[in-house]
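Researcher: Let's do a round of design. I'm pasting the structure tokens now; please hold your answer until I've finished.
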């Protein structure tokens, strides 16, 4: 009897070890086959040179082409950042405190941003001192829908830019080396947003109890949308900064910097140049 119990325990222990071994092998295989970064230049990348006279023109065309292809759905990007049009965000919090203005707290969930695919890159200027970028973008259309909570009810908010949206984005970067490649490390993003006209719609604002008041408030907001936007500009800019920072940080970790700029220096060369210029 004791021998049978021993054999049963030994058999179960061996079975558990086999299952554990198979699990480890599967995890290692999955990890080894996962995409790390582009070790060869992808076909959608246009490479420029720091030494070329028309660097800004080349960079503008290159960034426009890259954005277009990423939005269309490059698998390697989609696995990391998901879809860009529509762009789905789980939660957005607008927080703003002011000595003169009323404190503002707005929380949105399941936010969907559409028409990003229509973005136009007006200019992409490379900063030759640290290889950061200054982007000027035009968005002829932009729509946003999201849910917000009021008095325990989940309501729908819809915003639509009825005229062009212009965004100027400063992207500050450092360079770092990995596996013999130089990569961009996005350290800071600053946006300046200018909207031609914005129209909003609030679904079921008072639970259907006062449609007239609901229409009156909505009309007032849409007629004075610019004043409302200026009040919310600091918090709106902070939210956009964080969203774009997260996207660019992930994208730049997938693309070696030489696919953007063929003659970009290594981090060591950049540091040596900075040191020699300060002497």
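Researcher: That's everything. Go ahead.
Model: Designed sequence:
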């Amino acid at each position: 009897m004791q021998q049978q119990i021993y054999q049963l325990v030994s058999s179960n222990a061996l079975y558990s070890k086999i299952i554990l071994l198979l699990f480890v092998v599967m995890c290692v295989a999955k990890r080894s086959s996962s995409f790390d970064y582009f070790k060869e230049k992808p076909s959608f990348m246009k490479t420029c040179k720091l030494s070329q006279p028309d660097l800004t023109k080349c960079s503008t065309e290159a960034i426009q082409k890259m954005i277009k292809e990423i939005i269309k759905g490059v698998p390697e990007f989609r696995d990391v950042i998901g879809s860009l049009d529509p762009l789905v965000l789980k939660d957005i919090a607008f927080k703003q405190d002011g000595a003169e203005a009323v404190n503002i707290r707005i929380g949105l969930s399941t936010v969907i941003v559409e028409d990003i695919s229509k973005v136009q890159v007006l200019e992409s200027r490379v900063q030759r001192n640290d290889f950061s970028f200054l982007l000027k973008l035009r968005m002829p259309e932009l729509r946003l829908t999201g849910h917000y909570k009021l008095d325990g009810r989940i309501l729908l908010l819809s915003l639509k830019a009825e005229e062009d949206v212009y965004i100027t984005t400063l992207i500050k970067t450092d360079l770092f080396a990995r596996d013999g490649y130089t990569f961009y490390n996005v350290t800071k993003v600053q946006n300046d947003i200018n909207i031609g006209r914005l129209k909003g719609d609030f679904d079921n604002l008072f639970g259907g109890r006062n449609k007239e008041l609901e229409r009156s408030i909505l009309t007032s907001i849409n007629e004075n949308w610019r004043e409302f936007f200026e009040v919310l500009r600091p918090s709106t800019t902070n939210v956009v900064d964080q969203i774009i920072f997260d996207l660019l940080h992930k994208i730049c970790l997938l693309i070696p910097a030489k696919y953007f700029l063929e003659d970009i220096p290594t981090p060591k060369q950049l540091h040596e140049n900075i040191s020699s210029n300060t002497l």
